[in-house]
Amino acid sequence: MTTVEPPPANPVPPSPRPPSAATAGVRPLGVTVIAILAGLGGVLGLLAALTLLSVIGLVGGLGTFFFLLALVVAIVSLVFAYGAWTLQPWAWTMGIVLEALAVVNALYAIADGDSSGVISLLIAGVILWYLFQPDVKAAFGRT
Predict the structure, then answer these.
(1) What residues contact residue 13 under an 8 Å CB cut-off, 6+ apart?
(2) Are 22 and 28 in contact (CB under 8 A)?
(3) Rounded to an integer, what distance in angstroms lies between the CA atom of residue 77 and that of residue 64?
(4) Cβ(115)–Cβ(65) under 8 Å?
(5) DSSP at 92
(6) Are 51 and 66 in contact (CB under 8 A)?
(7) 62 confidence band (pLDDT: 50, 70, 90)
(8) Distances from the Cα of 103 to the Cαs of 50, 66, 121, 128, in angstroms?
(9) Which of the 8 DSSP states describes residue 16?
(10) pLDDT class of 45 with cuts at 50, 70, 90
(11) Is pTM, for the whole model, over 0.70?
(12) Which of the four pLDDT bands, split at 50, 70 and 90, describes residue 19?
C-alpha cells in the first residue's frame, strides 16, 4: 500500500523575477570603479598631506590648515572606498553627500570663472545619477 503525503501547509510562492546581480550581493562594475578611484584619491591625498606636513614650518598656520584639510579629505575618501568596495549601506549615503559637495564645489568653481568646474559638475552629476539607479541602491541594501 502506498501512502500519500499531504502538501505543505504554506507553500512558498515562486519569486516573480530572478534577483539581479546587485541584489544577489555582487558589486556592480560602476561601484567597483568608483571605489577604486576613491581609494586612489585617498592614497594620493595622504601623500599630499605628508608633503604639506614637510612645509608647515615654512608657511606657518596656513600650512597646518591645508595639511589637516588634505588629511581629512584623504581619510574620508579611503573610508568611502572601503564602504563602497564592501557594499556597506552607509557608504551609499556617504557617496551621495560627497558628490553633493562636489556639485557645490564645481558650481563655485564655475562662478569663479574656472571652466574645469563644468567637467567636475558633469562627473559628480553622473555619479549621483548612477548611485540612484535601483540596482545600485539595492546592492547597498537600499530600496
Answers:
(1) none
(2) yes
(3) 20
(4) no
(5) H
(6) no
(7) confident
(8) 27, 21, 5, 10
(9) S
(10) very high
(11) yes
(12) very low
